[in-house]
Specification:
Immunoglobulin-like
Length: 693
Amino acid sequence: MLFRMPVPTLPSIDGVALDDLGVRLHDGVGTLRVWSKNASSIELVLFDAHDLDWETAQVPLQRQPGGVWETTTELLQPGVRYALRVDGPHGPGHTFNPETLLLDPYARGLAQGDGYEEWRSVVIVDGFDWGGVQKPRVPLDETVIYEGHIKGLTKRHPDVPAALHGTYAGLAHPAMIEYLQELGITSVELLPVHAFVPEPRLLERGLTNYWGYNTLNFFTPHTAYATEAARKGGPEAVLAEFKGMVKLLHEAGIEIFLDVVYNHTSEEGLGGPRSSLRGIDNASYYRQQPDGAYIDTTGVGNTVNTATDAASRLILDSLRYWANEMQIDGFRFDLAAALGRNAAHEFDPQHPLLLAIRDDPALQDVKIIAEPWDVGMGGWQTGHFPAGWSEWNDRYRDRARNFWLSDIDYARRASAPVGIGGFANRLAGSANTYSEERGPLASINFVTAHDGFTLHDLVSYDVKHNEANGEQNRDGADMNRSFNHGVEGETEVPTILAARRKAMRNLMGTLLLSAGIPMITAGDEFGRTQRGNNNAYCQDSALTWLNWEHEPWQQDLLAHVTLLTRLRAENPALRPSRYARLGEHVPEASDMDWFDQNGETMEVEQWNDPRNRTLQYVASSAPHDGASNRILLIVHGTESPIDVRLPEDIEGVTSFTSLWSSADDVPAPDGKQYPPGAVLPISGTTMQLFRVE
């Protein structure tokens, strides 16, 4: 369950609620409402349906209380193409130009002309037969996220028809749905699908913005991800294809999350494209110094000013639209710290927008996930978002990588630098990062994401190889906590390949056996590579599209991940909703006991001793709706083999049943039983999971 607080008053201007902005059709006419505090005039411009340069009419808007401008006209009908002309004062912070044609920020559809900036808004009639299909509403503790790119997922899939490759409809094809179900995925998180444009600097280099973090409009699905038939049918057909995708995935019990970019827009810095907010009211929508210079906490030139009511309401209204009209199940907020900055541009965990997103009645069944940082001063805020939010846990990512990769690299040259205590904390739900009120489900656990090395490359490269991006390998992270295991890049050396593949199994095992919500990056389950590129945002090619033809070792890794997701689903002890408290029974928590390699309770000094990188972790749960469940997980974090004695002093235990081992190239059939006190030989760098009987 998501934690909810009392509903606050939603943002308004001068006491006037900003309701019904954009176009609303009624009684055979259309009413357009646009907000601009500083404009002196706004004009609606209408265009021919086939020639977006041919103006067919102009209609002035009248200023209403609270900075809202409005007109009602029979010229606004379904399918009509339109734009705005806005004039206003000159001076610091203002960039009005009445010659510029601007997009309605609330436009539900877009049409593109011949040029880079030749976009028009389109009047849309929302209407779709959902056939009674409801959102799956997967419990938070059962959620397994699969982060992927709508195009990259199916562009090369041999069982998806060519006409559907790389499209919304392609993701909803039975071949993809069956794959996701077999893999144990509950929730697909899509990289940005709000309408976006590539940056001019990329186009000049013959590249494009593949990931999509350059939003043009917050209400419209990206047209290029629709099938050719839908694109030819116009914005209404694109919208229908998107909704059809959601409906089919929901029928299969799979949720859809969107990675949403509300922290900045494609208008870039001053002097960049003027397509919407900059021309409507630059001083109100973007963070600025008194002289009009932008305050950029996003690294792309501008930052949306959520300290203003209008910007906050724009974001809330967009979320409501996607959650209700489009039936989206959750949102991952890119650079979410930028959304929580106040009028002094400082992060405030009680920012009205952060609380409103959590508490809005129209968003009560929606999962909300923060990327809890931006690039501004004080921008790293992991663990500091309000209750009810989950967060990408970069501390988890770093500790998992260190334990299985950089620590092992260091140990080969000296000795292991740290013990197992920090790793155990992440395994158990990161209680040192999230409050007791928020619990382990505040943590979105991940080892990789779209941004950075893939899992295969994490164990195969010591440094990034981003030359293809055209920035002399300066872009992308330099600190990757990766380990190539002896050779940079591809190799045929059997011992190195074996070590890399075990490292991948250990990292995936850690991810899927930890308390918290796991996120798998698409393709990691079968070891895809980007050939060492850790910032492939501008690569729309086979480098970033998933390759669905797999070598035997990739099939084996996929079998491991599929088994791990099943074991996670079958063992509630692995997915507590609350933190345990010593000596107390806490509902929805897993009681945890920790033992050393000899089966003895871990002593305080053992946790951080670099010579001790082996532990046995017993988690016990008694859920409300099922029988009690206990698991034992052995973690051994050095390359030397070791003997481990299973604990003997656990009350009521008769045996330990083997479920999974990262030492196996191919998952072994489960069911082998061991009595308490049995001594097991454990190979170097291995995890092994047991059910406690």
